Amino acid sequence: MESAREYLLRIPEFAREKHTLREAEEFLRELDSPFPGTVIHVAGTNGKGSVCAFLSSILQASGYRVGTFTSPHLTDVRERICVDGEPIDEKAFQRSFERVRRAWERQRERGMTHPTFFEFLFYMAAACFQEEKPEVVILEAGMGGKRDVTNVCRPALTVITSVSLDHMAYLGNTVEEIAGEKAGIIKPGVPLVFDGNDPAAAAVIRNQAETAGAPWRDVRQEPLSVAWDGPFPRISFPFLGERVQARLPFPAEYQVWNGALAGKAAEVLAAGRRDKDFRPGQVSHSGNGQTVPPFKGVTVSAVSQGLAEARHVGRMEEVLPGVYFDGAHNRDGIRAFCQAAARIAGLLGKPAYLLFSAVSDKEYGTMAEELLRELKPAEVFVAHMENGRGLSAGELETAFARAEEKAEETGGRRPGIRMFPSVSEAFSEAMKEKKAGNGLLFCAGSLYFIGELKECLKEEKHDQF
Cα 423 to the chain's mean position, in Å? Predict the structure, then answer.
């Protein structure tokens, strides 16, 4: 009998057509699985997963049961559907899968085509959360927002993280166009908290919110203090007349804004809101008005605790002493990664070694230039990953060779570049060089790449390192 995982992995072979939101609403009705409790909808380019992790941690510290739907996964597809920070168990995963498959078989008789991989998992999350009954559900949008299947939800709060150029083939060629897609999650009367990192994107988001009558807060306009405890940031900001103070568990400056964004979202929940036009957790525009009571458990101490205890794998994660994994995979993400990695290397006074891989639809040439210019690695290792969209080692080597030429023109140093046909070989060699050079190893370029590296950690014994 074909397992749920085998079936899911085959879906991209025969189901590529995205469905409309009306069709998604119809499927959820067939499944009889509107999301329970209060829904928080999160979109953006970079930082979505981190904000979801911070919010989940804050709400758990506040005493709430929390469900999260996020993407992508690193090593196990169950990572996408979590309750209180843990992937659902195998039995719950299988039950959810069977419910969705039976619902689709009924829909097929009415002429509906098969859900895409992402849609199918979203419906599985809906089925699972109906069974698990979390008090809060956090939904991370896919690459877009406006036309994303997650946009069928009727949230109590929407959150938009930093917006920058990525997925241009699908979302548009300018920051303004991409921001318009992300802002598609904004709902009439529903509070919005966003990261106005880019002035052009922020203007689009504000305009959309004001048009929808959605009260908004831009975290970049809020008071925020940042200090440093070695490589770890300490943040402090006002919270309902008191002050949150937390040492973030990620050695990366970019997490400052993600943490602050989650904190301000928590403040909106703690304050509560009444709006006659929305019902938290329901399929869009259904039913009468409903009160959103204050989340009384969300206190300044719970927010501080939740920020300090948040966990998010593959985001400037020190997986072994002096070895960091980061899922940065676009131009702005790589820039933020370089700042964090260079800071760590500078504080420790050690050379940085880089292990990199990427998928073919990313601006990998630009990323290579940024990495050489800002990180200045002692040596670069590039690897072909098993993902079908993965670039060959030769293409990656060529990208870095061209980046080297540009770096030399501006007086930069020329690191060695070594290419490998597999991630495991590249990781093994990079670890040896890191040890020999008494340095630090930073791995970045793709979340799929980080997933393969995680598998390497499971398979290899690293006593030799």
Answer: 22
